[in-house]
Fold:
Amino acid sequence: MTSRLAPFHTLEIRDLSVRAGGREILSGIHADIRCGEVTALIGPNGAGKTTLLLAILGLVPYAGEIRFCRAEEHGKGTPRIGYVPQRIDLDRNAPMTVLDFYALSSQRFPVFLGRSRKSRADAEAALNRGGSGHLIDRPLGKLSGGELQRVLLALALRDNPDILLLDEPVSGVDASGEELFCDFLDQIHRESRFSLLLVSHDLSVVTRHADRVICLNRSIVCQGATTEVLTPETLCAMYGSGAHLFSHGPSDGHGHLHGEKNE
Structure:
């Protein structure tokens, strides 16, 4: 969790609604993502969390307003946005390496004609930043869940984004991989001043890393500082009676929250 409390808002969302297939997915969303802070977006399955990220990216139509307000130290113009999806569809038997994957978005000629020296240099720099340089020639389909998420994160950070959107970045990753990923993310966030919007069902990750929390269930249930928002009453309202407080490991001394949605 960062201690920076900047007075700027990097992202302002006003009265945002999204409809698809004749039904309302999001309604009356009013929220701020503060400059330099980690904001967690939580809610049950089907609450519209991924849809909100896609609206911010301009990938789904919406009503309302999304305003990007760049802090003075970030300069002027449209902010750069990095995005790590919850999953990517790929053929795990395809002969595509991590370098090929990077080159798809960084060079002008097709990858099957070869990779440029600049593509390799850029990929090495991005991966080395996250301690994953050794993966550059590995087949993409052979990576573990944690390795793939670190590759996707390194790609999202390549252009030094002002805003980073992460959709369930540790979903399907084992406990040790989750710790490595979160430690790396903390390190990068301390070094940079990007605003981070994190979707997560793992509330222990939220309590350890987020400055603020937005509770979403098609509309805003509540939002505010993490320690003030994540109360047993809020969790019960969001997830049902299965939400409870527990200790995340015997040595850290912190109480963490875990949510389960009753189906």
